[in-house]
Amino acid sequence: MATKSTTAERAGVAAEPGTLALVCVIAWAIPGAAHFWLGRRQKGLVFFLALTALFLLGLQLHGRIFAIDLQEPLSTLAAVADLGLGLPWVIARIAGVGTGQVTALTYEYGNTFLIVAGLLNTLVVLDAFDIAMGRK
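^ that's the sequence the OP posted. Answer follows.
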């Protein structure tokens, strides 16, 4: 476990603007990776496992990864929420998974899991930013 001085030293180094941006990009791209990098290894592992499980469960429940469609504002909001998960979202879009199956009984549950995973990762990014700034 990291000591307070080690964590404070990392936070001081991470508080540089370029490093703060890198922390945020890493935190967005791979859930929990920035926490792991900043010395919060248990927290990073929990975030990685939990958010990845939410995302995969959402796909398994036939959820839909929404596309940005300005004609449908609620779908656009869902797409922005989905985008919050980072690389898992990018990989799923490239692989063509997450098209959703509207006739599946679990469709809405799948959508909810996918949206919540993205929104939670957005909070994880903010938490990593606060840690890097030395606020936590």
